[in-house]
Structure formats: structure tokens, C-alpha cells
Specification:
Distance between the termini: 67 Å
CATH architecture of the largest domain: 3-Layer(aba) Sandwich
CATH class of the largest domain: Alpha Beta
Largest sheet: 2 strands, antiparallel
Structural class: alpha+beta
Strand content: 5-15%
Helix content: 55-70%
């Protein structure tokens, strides 16, 4: 299925997908964005792209997406934990540095 979006009328959608140039080609398969590129693509290249997207192992693609989402969530949680520690006064070099100074090391 092919679609065209009026980014002036659908500004929220354009922002969600970070569309900065017109035209921008985006290809989705099984609700996963598998290709995005600003600019025109010649007909033969577009046909080749469609063939490649059809040939994708979507089980593998879904696995990689899940891994990336889990890694992003882990990094975000670590960042929030560090922010909270800094707010609580237990940031980098906090108590560990105090222990070293007391032991003479």
C-alpha cells in the first residue's frame, strides 16, 4: 500500500516522524519503519527497495527492534537513576570518595 501525507495539514504526524524535507520516503512493514530517506528515488531504485523490503525476515527485524527498545529503556532508567542520585547528593564521587579519604587511600 502506498500513501501520501500532506505535512502542512498533518503537522503532528510530520513531527512524530521527524520529516524535515519534502519529499521524504518512508517504508513500513508490519508497523515497523524499515526505511526512511528524504528526496526522490528513481523508479528502478524504488522497485528494488520494495523487493528488498518484501524479502526482509520480519521476525529478525522485530527481535532487533525489541533489543533496541530494551537498551533504550535501560539507558533511560540509568539516566533517571543518576539524576535522582545527583539530586539526593549521592552523585559521582560522593560516598565512595569519602570512604577513601577516611581509610587514608
Amino acid at each position: 500500500m502506498f500513501g501520501k501525507i500532506d505535512t502542512d495539514a498533518e503537522q503532528e504526524l510530520a513531527a512524530t516522524f521527524e520529516i524535515r524535507s519534502i519529499p521524504t520516503l518512508m517504508v513500513f512493514r508490519d508497523q515497523v519503519l524499515v526505511f526512511a530517506r528524504p528526496g526522490m528515488i528513481p523508479g528502478a531504485a524504488l522497485e528494488d527497495l520494495v523487493d528488498k523490503v518484501k524479502a526482509l525476515d520480519m521476525v529478525e527485524v522485530q527481535r532487533k527492534v525489541a533489543e533496541q527498545e530494551a537498551e533504550h529503556a535501560r539507558q533511560e532508567a540509568e539516566g533517571q537513576q543518576k539524576t535522582q542520585q545527583a539530586r539526593d547528593g549521592h552523585g559521582l564521587g560522593g560516598e565512595a570518595g569519602d570512604d577513601e579519604a577516611q581509610s587514608g587511600g
